[in-house]
Amino acid sequence: MSTESQSVPVQVPARRTVIACVGAAGLAAALTACGGGGSDDAKPAGDGAGKDAKGVLGKTSDIPQGGGKIFAAQGVVVTQPTAGQFKAFSAKCTHQGCAVSSVSGGTINCPCHGSKFDVADGSVKGGPAPSPLPAAAISVQGDSIKLA
After folding, report:
1. Do residues 50 and 27 lie in contact, with contact meaning Cβ atoms separated by under 8 Å?
2. pLDDT at 11 over 70
């Protein structure tokens, strides 16, 4: 019996193959890191999720004049730019889809990259957002606000 060992040739990938694979993996990681970043559980306006049995989103007294309130479960933000005037917009930032987090100083604010939107019309007031927040349909009946 021979104790000689046979060497098995090891196939080493070409340098270009290694660089291409590393580049592809890096690109995939970068795209994953930059994509979304917002809340995946935000629902589009009008889907009915999270409303009470009567379909009421909230009360008019819940919405401060010159400010607003975010209804995360429904994916909308309701504002009251002037007394008795109620507006609603998507709560999803038009920059990268993050959920807006606050309404203050006359703007709806995104925490991800600092975009700000006007409470009266959803227009971009600052930040990298490329377009205004889309309007959402609501109705006000008495002191109740409902998604239309």
Report:
1. no
2. no
